[in-house]
């Protein structure tokens, strides 16, 4: 068993049946914390009640139990095991300081099930309490994965069990549940039982949200090489409408010390339609604390580019489109001490993070309200706000013109609107860095392929003109760093590295870059940082105008 120090470093060893120990490095994307109100974290003693699986009866010496997304439950789950020789494994996208009695693998559901098979993890019980099924792009796909995990069970009979608790609406209607039951029995060798669950939910006063799925293996005819065929079959038989609207999957493939890893990470973004949704696959990853911290650092670092000449009337009601975790909101509230901000974002977790963060500062109390909303379908009344602010948002949306037009619709006459956006084609790095250029090309192509626009900053004046604004002003704001200011140069290169790496998961998953390109890009950035003659330049577009109302 690895030491606590090795665990924190994300390194374990696995003992194979022949007694040989092999290293297994966990794929860790940064220390991330689950939201405090995460549904499955409030009532740990009732875990067995939620699953309705008699855990202590089912599990015997030599069995393995896999819990998808244990999060902060890890220690409590270990305490539920009073039988020696039972192995508890947690699969989570969050790096945990877990007890030695639980093996933590970083990832939510293994994309490469053979990884577990090769490492002799055979599960008699698989539990998923508000984890992969709840926050996946396609809950049926997650259900298929988890059903296949049951096929790894060493049990020769039907005792291998699957227990899931998720939102009632994840799989559609009662008729849809019946279709899934038939599919699971015929194609997955699993007997599923769907039922509403209210006891635990009543305590949370959310009885309409809970669905319990109990499944047991009835055959083991499915092999992992049939995975893609099963997904295609599920799409055909169950229909695309079965896909959820909360999330998307990112798959990462890395090899460390000869141990191949393939993981799926859940992220929450609106998939309900093309109108107003942040592009289907957000380039910078999920709304985790790591991404929120990066956005806060970005807001502070690029403050001059974004907030110079931004002004609003006294006591103005300001609308911020794409408030994210509140990093830009904090600057606006500080620079304009009398305004109140309504911040909207398509991601409810970001809205919650912004509201929680800003509520901790007495200076901001009562001055910020966050709402989850589609930017292309604002629910506000015409002329409701006295100003608007949009920054680093239009590059990600499918129809920036619609967003700007909706924004100006809800502004009062003469209300100021401020936009700042990227012009990524202005990127320049010297000396020549081929891997970095390849990575940057892929970065921008990903944006285009998923409905975004990496050069939308050059179109801001047109967008405001088409929205019938007046007094439209545009300027290109640039950054140039070189040896004349080594502190600024180091800060810029470090910022750029973080920005690049925030997209690594998506680019690798989509085949836009190779691991060699990623490694080469990082080496080139490291070399440029210590090269006295290196330099970096880029520019962004900033526009401001006044709203015109008929």
Q: Strand tally, please?
A: 19
List the strand order in the largest sheet: 5-4-3-7-8-10-9
Number of helices: 19
Distance between the termini: 72 Å
Q: Could you say which overall geometry the principal axes of the C-alpha atoms support?
A: globular
Main sheet overview: 7 strands, mixed
Structural class: alpha/beta
Mean pLDDT: 75
Query: What's the helical proportion of residues?
Result: 25-40%
Low-confidence stretches: 1-17, 22-43, 199-208, 243-281
Strand content: 15-25%
Q: Please compute the radius of gyration using only Cα atoms.
A: 25 Å
Q: What does the model show?
A:
The relative contact order is 0.09. A seven-stranded mixed sheet has the order 5-4-3-7-8-10-9. The protein has a seven-stranded mixed sheet with strand order 15-14-13-16-17-19-18. A three-stranded antiparallel sheet has the order 6-12-11. By secondary structure, it is α/β, with parallel strands linked by helices. Helix 6 (139-150) links the parallel strand 7 (123-129) and strand 8 (161-167). The chain has helices at 4-8, 47-51, 55-58, 74-79, 113-118, 139-150, 174-188, 199-204, 227-238, 289-301, 303-307, 327-335, 348-359, 400-409, 434-449, 460-466, 486-502, 504-509, 515-530; strands at residues 11-15, 21-25, 64-68, 87-92, 102-106, 109-110, 123-129, 161-167, 190-196, 210-217, 247-256, 259-268, 317-321, 340-345, 368-372, 387-391, 416-430, 470-481, 535-546. The model is unreliable at 1-17, 22-43, 199-208 and 243-281 (pLDDT under 50). Helix 6 (139-150) packs across helix 9 and helix 10 runs antiparallel to helix 17. The longest helix is centred in the C-terminal third of the chain and has 17 residues, at 486-502. It contains 19 helices and 19 strands.
